[in-house]
Structure formats: structure tokens, C-alpha cells
Design brief:
Length: about 450
């Protein structure tokens, strides 16, 4: 069920045990690599959200047989590295930047032409960051003026490997180039300015590809086939983040979040919240395939404002909307810098969060690459999420500490990453009501 508006009553606490849906990044990659593998790949814990389903449909449109997901389980009949077929129509990737950027790399190595389109938000997002290095590899990618979608990708090019120092810390750009590298002559290498999520490297290795990571350099050589296997997707730390913040700020809360991915390239939110004074314990740490997971226990604790260490920014890049709500409920001021990437996410997350915080009466100062937020009493009021799933969910949890209700509009995209959010949040103690689009 997807809702246009969230109405959330103030107060309450979060308690009990919950499991948030599967990791979005890993779900995308499971479809992509499973499709390119030889043999059948079984996936469990798959995120049945609109973004990862857009990836699934794109591969079906290229001739891959993928069963309908049932409670997160599906099977992919891999077609091998060279078995994809030309799609009949442009591939519509909806709201999903990950689908578009990773697919661009993969499609640049195919024998057929293809076209990628997206919704209004995706159609505003920068794609030159993948088109430019792929062109250096010999690909032909046409974008709209301004470097945005739709993308037209010319097939039948002979790609050559390059060594590419990435101008920004981006796992999508890294993954795009590694996927193109499977088809490029020789070695393809990327050099990261800072560590970013390494799910592509881990999963490629699990499929038998030799990926070399040395300090900030990640490389692979072409001519390697992928072997099918099974993938168990952890619960998404990015979805858990809303509840980590909610339980930290709401009096008398104690929540256990089960089977959450705690990959060290994703755990910035835990590190930042702990620096702010949050009471977060990892229990039952274990491995799920190639990814570390834990049950995370979080209890309410007084939070203090901090200067967010810049090296943690790429490790928490999707969690800042939630972290801003923690900052609004901390004593003192929290300062974020070095986060200009937030301006080119599903929305301009610095400005859209700042506008929402203003509605709630929270003092802040916007900078080009960050924000300063001074904790205070949140009044409640009306907030526009601008179709950004993570902003909608962050303001929903904020109501746990607001004086009056918070009403959030343009929430339908919550279904891109967190189907069942309203129901799960309600079961944990949030007084939330979802209203369908009228
Ligand atoms: C993702 C990488 C990040 C992140 C996005 C998912 C991925 O984007 O924000 O939600 O799955 O590789 P960037 O690579 O643009 O930082």
C-alpha cells in the first residue's frame, strides 16, 4: 500500500522487535549479477520495493527469466555475460538512481542499443558522472542537455579498460565502471577519494570474479564469467536508521532491529549517533553470505550536537535526513560539512530537510555542502517531502518528540525503498496514519 500523506500524532515510544525490509543496494545487485551469471541464482530477503523491482523488470525486458518475488524469495535463471537481449522499449527505471547508473555501465558493454528513462526526480539527476568515464572506455552514451536522462547507449562498442580516479565518492560510479569492466579489454580500475559501499565487489567475488581491492584502488580484468549462487539479503541499515533515530529520541524506547546489515562501508549512521550519545548495541553479530549483520538494540538516550567527522559522510550518505532529526532533538549544535552530494539525491536533501525543519521551528543554517542544526523543541506542522522517501520517513519519526502532529505530503515514493513502512512503524509504537492519494 502506498500513501500520499502521513499524519503522525505526537509522542509515544518505540518498543519490541522488528525487521525492516531487505537492503536496497544488495537487492539491485542480486538481480544484476544473478542475470549475468551462468546457472540459477536464488535470492532471499529481496526488497520488494519499487526501485529494486524496476531493476527486476529491466532484466526481464532483456530476456532474463526471474520468478515473481514471494515474501522476498525469487530465482533468476542467469543468461551468462553475453546472453542479454535487446529490450523492445526504453527501460523505465522510475525513481531509481542505482538502477540507472549501474545499468549504464553494464549496457555499455552489450552488442545492442538501449535507452534508459526515469521519473521526474531521476530525470533531473546527474548522469555525466557515469557517461564521461564510460566514454573514456570507448562507450557511446548520449544524455539530455545538462547530462541528465534519458540516456541512449550505443551497443557494439569495443570497450577498453581504464584507470579512473573518481572525482566524487560514489559507489554507483564505481559499480558502473566495474560492470563495464567485465566487458572491457584488459583491466578496469577505479580510485576512490574516500571509501564507499563495497557490495558490488563482495558480490562479484561471491560469483567467482577476481576483484582486487588495494587501498583506494579497486580493479578487475575482463574475460571472467560469473557463477550462480545463493544470496541472502540483510535488512537495510538505511531503513533501520529511521528507527535508530526514533528510539533514541522517544522517551522509554527500547527496540531490537533484527538481521541488519552492518557492512563497515555502511555503518556511518551508527558511528555518528553513538558520537551524539546514542545507546546502540550490536548483538548476535554474524555473517549472512558475504555481508556482516547484527541485531541492533537501541534505547532512548540524551543526544548532544557534534561536528560530524567528514570521513563518516560517505559511510552515512543516505542516512542524513534521519540524522538531521536526531540533531534537531540534541542539545547544542550539530555541524555537517563535505556533504554536497546530498543536493543531488532523490531531492536536494539539504534544502528540503531545511525547509521541513523550519516548519517545525528548528533553528538551522544552510551551507552549500552541509548544514548546522541547533536542537530545540519541535512544534509540529506541515512538511513537504518533495517525493523523497527518506525525507518523508525521517519527519514521520520526528513526531515522537514534537509538540503537535506532523503532516507530511508527497509520500508515495516511500514504497521505493520501504514497502509496509506505515504498518511496521505503527506496530513499533508510532501513531501514524497513511492517507491514500485522492
Ligand atoms: C548506492 C550508492 C549511493 C547511495 C544510493 C545507493 C548504491 O549513491 O546514495 O542510495 O547502491 O550504490 P552514490 O553512489 O551516488 O553516492
Amino acid at each position: 500500500m502506498s500513501y500520499a500523506v502521513f499524519r503522525v500524532k505526537p509522542g509515544g515510544s518505540l518498543t519490541g522487535n522488528i525487521q525492516v525490509p531487505g537492503d536496497k543496494s544488495i537487492s539491485h545487485r542480486s538481480i544484476m549479477l544473478g542475470s549475468l551469471a551462468d546457472g540459477e541464482t536464488r535470492v532471499s530477503g529481496f526488497l520488494e520495493g519499487a526501485d529494486s523491482l524496476a531493476t527486476l523488470e529491466a532484466f526481464r525486458a532483456m530476456g532474463v527469466e526471474i520468478s515473481d518475488p514471494q515474501a522476498g524469495e525469487l530465482t533468476i535463471r542467469g543468461v551468462g555475460l553475453n546472453g542479454l537481449r535487446k529490450p523492445e522499449k526504453p527501460l523505465d527505471l522510475g525513481n531509481s538512481g542505482t538502477s540507472m547508473r549501474l545499468l549504464t555501465g553494464l549496457l555499455a558493454g552489450q552488442q545492442f542499443d538501449s535507452e534508459l528513462v526515469g521519473d521526474e526526480s531521476l530525470s533531473r539527476r546527474p548522469m555525466s558522472r557515469v557517461a564521461a568515464p564510460l566514454s573514456l572506455m570507448g562507450a557511446r552514451i548520449d544524455t539530455a542537455s545538462g547530462g541528465t536522462p534519458p540516456l541512449r547507449i550505443g551497443g557494439g562498442k569495443n570497450l577498453v579498460g581504464i584507470e579512473y580516479p573518481m572525482p566524487m565518492a560514489s559507489a554507483q560510479v564505481k559499480s558502473c565502471l566495474l560492470l563495464a569492466g567485465l566487458y572491457a579489454q584488459g583491466e578496469t580500475a577505479v580510485i576512490e577519494p574516500a571509501p564507499t559501499r563495497d557490495h558490488t565487489e563482495r558480490m562479484l567475488r561471491a560469483f567467482g570474479v577476481d576483484v582486487v581491492s588495494e587501498d583506494s584502488r579497486v580493479s578487475l580484468k575482463s574475460g571472467q564469467s560469473l557463477k550462480a549462487g545463493s544470496i541472502d539479503v540483510p535488512a537495510d541499515i538505511s531503513s533501520a536508521a529511521f528507527f535508530l533515530v526514533g528510539a533514541s529520541i522517544a522517551r522509554d524506547s527500547e527496540l531490537l532491529l533484527e538481521k541488519v546489515g552492518i557492512n563497515p562501508t555502511r555503518d556511518g549512521v551508527i558511528q555518528i549517533l553513538r558520537l551524539m550519545g546514542a545507546d546502540i548495541q550490536l548483538e548476535n553479530e554474524r555473517k549472512l553470505g558475504d555481508e556482516p549483520v547484527a541485531d541492533i538494540r537501541v534505547r532512548c538516550a540524551p543526544l548532544q550536537g557534534i561536528d560530524i567527522p567528514p570521513e563518516l559522510v560517505p559511510l552515512a550518505i543516505d542516512e542524513f535526513p534521519a540524522i538531521f532529526i536526531a540533531a534537531a532533538n540534541a542539545s547544542g549544535t550539530t555541524r555537517l560539512t563535505g556533504a554536497a552530494e546530498l543536493r543531488v539525491k532523490e531531492s536536494d536533501r539539504i534544502q528540503v530537510m531545511a525547509d521541513g525543519l523550519k516548519q517545525l521551528g528548528i533553528k538551522h543554517r544552510v551551507q552549500q555542502d552541509g548544514i548546522e542544526i541547533t536542537g530545540g523543541l519541535m512544534k509540529g506542522g506541515k512538511v513537504n517531502s518533495h517525493g523523497d522517501h527518506r525525507i518523508a520517513m525521517s519527519f514521520a519519526l520526528a513526531a515522537l518528540r514534537s509538540r503537535k502532529s506532523i503532516e507530511i505530503s508527497d509520500c508515495q515514493n516511500v514504497a521505493t525503498s520501504f514497502p509496509g513502512f506505515v504498518e511496521l512503524a505503527r506496530s513499533a509504537g508510532l501513531d501514524i496514519e497513511g492517507l491514500p492519494a485522492s
